[in-house]
Amino acid sequence: MPLDQQHEHDRLKDGKGEMSFFEHIAELRKHILRSALAIAAVATVAFLNKDFIFNVLIFGPRSPDFITYRTLCHFSHSVGLGEGMCFTPPDFKLITRQLGEVLMQHLYVSFWLGIIGAFPFIFWEFWKFISPGLYEKERKAVRGVVIVCSLLFLAGVSFGYFVIAPFSISFLASYTLEGLEVAPTLDSYVTYMTMFTLPMGLVFEMPILGYFLAKIGLIGPSFLRSYRRHAVVVILIIAAIITPPDVVSQTMVAIPLYLLYEVTILVVAAVSRRRNKEMRLAERKAFVKSENS
Length: 293
Prior knowledge:
Structural class: mainly alpha
Mean pLDDT: 82
Shape: globular
Number of helices: 12
Helix content: over 70%
Largest sheet: none
């Protein structure tokens, strides 16, 4: 285990007391600095591979050979639907209107890819900072939280990239008027791709948030079930905020959000059952102890 993670525990064992406020700030600064260096490292790698990042990764969903289009078409043929589920985005050009737009978007994309690529390390640093303040029992209860949160975040980003992005780009690029040619700017395209991916990574953390709130007793499964209709309204609002102003994108975001809400209910129910069982066991032990005394 890293020394900085054990720092506060060693102080308590040596009888030196808890860390002061300024010592906490200094410790937090170290974790933030290491996270920033990780982001910079990944962003630098992305920046040095401009052709791959843009031509393959960023521009992938606008290509007819993108894996999502090919997979859907293959599935359509395999289930006997023929070309029923086969579609490709319309051919459209990307333009730049400002002299430094390409460079700025290159930096912008590299930065966000740095955050996505370094997210597991960033969350690990965050966990190392807060875990010393937890009891040993609490740390054991959330063992593996870094792996789970990282996988959920990457799953959300992947869902946005492979599902939301191709459908939305195909719809928006084909929605036009007679006499108009669709030629979005590079800035517009990159902004949409960011909206399709990053927010979904954060939204996929919903079950983890529910787990911790249930662990401390703030929410229970009955609460989430009773406010299911209200949650649907909130989900639709969130979908409208994090997606472009079209019904297709909003629907494709709202459906997985609702499924995540139902998964969160299951997680909270399991945590609540375990918590209630532990509380009853503790009360029973306390009662037996009082009777014996």
